[in-house]
Amino acid sequence: RVPAADDTLELLRRWHGGDLEAVARLVERDREWVEARLRRRRIARGDGDTHDDCQDLMLRVLRYAPRFVCANRSQFRGLLARMIENLVVDDLAAGPAEAFGQHRGQAMDAR
Fold first, then answer.
1. Residue 45: Cβ within 10 Å count
2. What does the pLDDT profile of the chain (111 residues) look like in tens digits?
3. Is residue 88 classed exposed, middle or buried when 0-12, 13-18 and 19+ CB atoms within 10 A define those classes?
4. Alpha-carbon distances, residue 54 vs 12, 37, 61, 68 (angstroms)
5. CA distance linking residue 43 with residue 52, whole number of Å
6. Where do the H-state alpha helices sit in the chain?
7. Which of 33, 30, 88, 32 has its CA nearest to residue 57?
8. Are 90 and 61 contacting, i.e. CB atoms less than 8 angstroms apart?
9. Count of CB atoms within 10 A of residue 9's CB?
């Protein structure tokens, strides 16, 4: 089986250009991996809302983080997961209303 070409760099370039389909593709493609990492690190809850929470956090990071470029999918996943972990820690420090899984429906601020 031949591995699929790594389209991470192209998707990131499209994201930088404002292509929302590229953002949706990045989230769809890597959400399960990021969610599993957050669970392993005991940052994500184990309930059914984790899927939506992880997706919301990924979109939040991709909307408000500085534009970055990663050479491949592995680098992208690691950086994105670290940024989400930091965001969750910051939100928890800000108070319970900002904690993981509590921000849906609220305006996202650009910290």
1. 14
2. 545 679 999 999 999 999 999 999 999 999 998 888 877 876 665 555 667 788 888 888 888 877 888 889 999 998 888 888 888 888 778 875 555 554 444 433 433
3. buried
4. 19, 11, 11, 20
5. 14
6. 8-16, 20-40, 50-64, 73-94
7. 88
8. no
9. 15
Alpha-carbon distance values, 69 to 21, 40, 59, 64, 90 (Å): 17, 26, 16, 15, 24
The torsion of the CA quartet 51, 57, 59, 62, rounded to 10 degrees, works out to -140
Q: Alpha carbon of 89 to those of 35, 44, 109, 111: distances in Å?
A: 16, 11, 16, 13
Q: Which of the 8 DSSP states describes residue 72? A: S
Amino acid letter at 99?
Answer: A
Cβ(53)–Cβ(44) under 8 Å?
yes
